[in-house]
Amino acid sequence: MTEQQSVFLAKSAVKASDLEHKRKLAFNINKYNETVVKGKKQFTDLDNARKRAKNVKWKAIENLDRYLEQFEKNFTANGGKVIWAETAEEALQAVLDICKLKGARQVVKSKSMVTEEIHLNDFLAKHGIDSVETDLGEYIQQLDGEAPYHIVTPAMHKSKEDVARVFHTKLGTEPNLTPQQITKLARKNLREKYITSEVGVTGGNFLLADIGAVCVSENEGNARLTTSFPDTHIAIVGIEKMLPSINDLHLFWPLLATYGTGQNVTVYNTIFTGPRKANETDGPDDMYVILLDNGRTNLLRKEVRESMYCIRCGSCLNACPVYKNIGGHAYGATYSGPIGSVITPHMKGMEEFKHMSYASSLCGNCTEVCPLKINIHDMLLKNRIMSVEENLNGFKENTAWKLWKQTMMSRTLLNLSKSGIKNKVVNIVFKDSWGKNRKDLQFADKSFNKLWKDRYK
Q1: Three-state SS string across 360-383, please?
Q2: Is pLDDT at 29 greater than 90 in this prediction?
Q3: Maximum distance among all alpha carbons in the chain?
Q4: Which of 206, 220, 303, 376 is most buried, judging by how many CB atoms fall within 10 Å of its CB?
């Protein structure tokens, strides 16, 4: 068993038994489910919209090399600068070099999972640069010293009382602030950061090849402030975020909003084509786009290629029975839930993270709710197959499955329940996993096969 798997099992066991944690998570996910139903009503033919979106992403990924070069050509023509980063280390060094060039001691950062992926905040802190999260959920998590809990909703596991306690502990506020008071205080603290930061950092929801642009969707306006006040804007974007054309946004923006938060469209949707032009009143003097690979090209293998279509809406997390029981932090990876369990083993190493693909019931609900109809549960199964083919399972696991197979293929062994052997074997083998929090299993004296034979002699 790897270290990552051990940590995952330990954290999962704690969270699965934490009823208060599950109550908060269920409350927030139920609110999400209610709004998504309303958001879907904006589509006259939702199924057709989802199919069209999947075809667009298919086109983008099948021609990714060409579209990336087209993006670079068009973006640089508008005065922007493109940096190609094959690894997280290359992306981090590029950000540090830009910060040193601009003399930055503080950066403001809008919500971005890709910067969490490369651990940008910690890296900058080691070099004496303060990185401030400006999204309210991310700001709460940063104050509390935690990573984001969810792809879309970073503090989904916290109640309003939890947030008030964080502000009281970290900022010395009154212990029972209302959500309105918390928001006003965060706004006051953060607005000062915008005007005193030399660099603003964002991610990107989409890359547009035909006009060379980065699209950022948000609900709070913090990304616009992050990119308007600082003199330099750095956008770090995964290469899979590519769309062929600006004309595809009329389809993707509503799908992302509906499946992400249940809205018809996100409040602020911005298209960045480069730094401020001569006739523009705001925006940065310099804009850099860092195109990040960091293992993404490993996802181009045919078995998991569809995972590159993901638009990071988070709907599969909210639908997954495993995620709803153990939450986001138990996974020990930036991308959690079903889609995270597909992509993380390929991006960070199958040997260390193959266990994530086993943390699924394979019920298929993740595939059902995906706006792009990505076949997530099938790819989870393919990841399991790959781990077996690559001999990554240990001796105990391989032996257990061989014994299970022999038992399942033997009617004689399956009919041993009357003697109590089956009860003893199962309850001894699974005493630490199943039996730890449950009563012993008691099989019926007669199997269905035996009952059938008795009835129809």
Answers
A1: CCCCCHHHHHCCCCCCHHHHHHHH
A2: yes
A3: 92
A4: 376
